[in-house]
Design brief:
This protein has 165 residues and is an alpha+beta fold. It is 36% helix and 13% strand. It contains 6 helices and 6 strands, in the order ααααββααββββ. The strands form 3 sheets. The chain has a two-stranded antiparallel ribbon with strand order 1-2. Helix 2 crosses helix 3. 13% of the residues are buried.
């Protein structure tokens, strides 16, 4: 399933920003933890609730909001009683770099030993540790903060803030 392309970005206070718009959709703790569980292959509500620790009513609300935003889709697995699984859409799967960045930051700054690790198994070979990185599509070099240049494209805004007070 292809997720819909938004016709207009959300109107939010402050600087027009894709980070703010993304946080508007997935920036709540239970939403991101539900997405994590879907990445791990847990698609049923009970498992998502158990593994996130989310209150059931709050998790229900977050999954509905993620569905409305096109991040997850419900798929029926039982008609009597009606039961659904949750699956990431293309938009949801595109959250992988965000999840990986948060995981890497937490591993580096919050845990003495990472509680989860990933491995890459290219073409069925032996798995090896997987550590994703931002890579320049032109030169192939790894992107680092000091090497990145910010360009503001929103009318009326500069890096420093709004051009009109």
């Amino acid at each position: 399933m292809t997720s819909p392309t938004p016709s207009a970005p959300p109107v939010l206070p402050g600087r027009p920003c894709s980070i703010a718009a993304a946080l508007h959709v997935v920036g709540e703790k239970w939403a991101l933890l539900a997405v994590r569980e879907l990445f791990y292959g847990n698609h049923r509500f009970d498992r998502i609730a158990r593994n996130t620790g989310a209150p059931r009513d709050r998790l229900t609300a977050r999954l509905r909001a993620l569905e409305e935003a096109g991040v997850v889709e419900r798929r029926a697995y039982s008609e009597r009683p009606p039961r659904y699984e949750y699956h990431l859409t293309e938009a949801g799967r595109d959250l992988a770099p965000l999840a990986q960045a948060l995981l890497g930051w937490g591993d580096r700054w919050l845990y003495p030993e990472p509680p989860v690790s990933f491995s890459h198994t290219p073409d069925g070979h032996e798995p090896h540790p997987y550590d994703p990185a931002w890579v320049c599509r032109t030169c192939g070099g790894e992107g680092r903060g000091e090497d990145l240049h910010v360009e503001i494209h929103s009318p009326g805004w500069t890096v420093e803030g709004p051009t009109v007070p």
